[in-house]
User: Which sequence fits this backbone?
């Protein structure tokens, strides 16, 4: 199961090691793409294919469908980990997520997010301060 918070470093040549606990569940072939709130998202190829299918089933004449495709699919990279569990992140994704040396990986059951550690601390502060309100909104959505 993809859970937990892990620290890592972005090294020379834009290389970073995927934490071993996450690597066990994701495997050596992954998809990395833009995520919301300026993070990156890692999924297995089969999960990405399911996402593509769900997007492609929608009417492409809708601008929201095209924009979602542009955002998630247009920014995606197929990556194979080396035998030490490292990957090279594309420069465009590093720039999108404003990644610096210190990185935080967040396991979220079905996917993993990569954050700049500073950005993650800010987001976690927001979540900590607003968790009750967020849970109430989610409960309202679930009951609709």
Assistant:
């Amino acid at each position: 199961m993809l859970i937990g918070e892990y620290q890592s470093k972005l090294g020379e040549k834009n290389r970073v090691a995927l934490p071993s606990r996450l690597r066990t569940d994701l495997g050596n072939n992954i998809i990395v793409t833009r995520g919301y709130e300026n993070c990156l998202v890692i999924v297995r190829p089969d999960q990405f294919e399911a996402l593509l299918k769900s997007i492609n089933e929608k009417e492409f004449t809708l601008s929201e469908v095209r924009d979602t495709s542009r955002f998630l699919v247009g920014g995606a990279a197929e990556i194979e980990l080396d035998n030490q569990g490292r990957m090279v992140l594309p420069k465009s994704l590093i720039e999108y997520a404003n990644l610096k040396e210190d990185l935080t990986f967040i396991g979220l059951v079905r996917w993993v997010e990569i954050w700049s550690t500073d950005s993650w601390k800010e987001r976690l502060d927001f979540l900590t301060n607003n968790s009750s309100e967020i849970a109430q909104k989610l409960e309202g959505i679930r009951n609709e």
